[in-house]
Amino acid sequence: MMTGENMSTVNSHYAGYNVLNRMDEWDSHTKEIVRRRLGPFPERQFLSEREWAYLSIIAEHIVYDNRADIIEWIVHHCDRKFADETGEGERKKGIPPEKILIREGLKALDHAARLSYGCDFGGLDVEQQFQLLADLQQGKAAYIPQWSLVPQKALFNKLASEMVSAYYSHPAVWSEIGYGGPMYPQIYVRIEEGLVEPWEARRNGK
After folding, report:
1. Is the pTM of this model over 0.85?
2. pLDDT band at 6 (very low <50, low <70, confident <90, very high)
3. Closest by CA position to 54, among listed 2, 96, 112
4. Cα 135–chain centre separation
């Protein structure tokens, strides 16, 4: 996690590369999945307006990016994930279900912010937000009884996991890191070291 003081659009090593130019190579199901990540997005299902705003702030700090379209996709992904009734798989002992972890965790974040800085999390300046999240990551946020229900590190790790996963599933980020997108039905053939496919991104145009 990085401070948002000089947050800006990421500079890509793959100038001019746009993975969406390859959409015709993908099957229809894959195209539809990727298109959904570009918006417009449906109404929120789980998050309240305040929770949506807080996750937007947190996402900017976690992924160190403030592009509105990408942040909106990340928070939409989280909203859909937390609204889903599918089981979570593994969950460590003492960690509440993710719906409770997130909802009560964001309330606790406000309490911790008021105790440390005198206002809700949304009213903090960028550096204060960053510091509170850094404390949360280390389990060192100001003590409040709510942390016994929603462990700090578990809250941070859940948010970071979902947000980073969503960030690196966005086509704009794929293009910036030179990822060629889904390979089905196409496949990689030139697997020898140092060789790339004709359609793959070239670093700095090389």
Report:
1. yes
2. very low
3. 112
4. 19
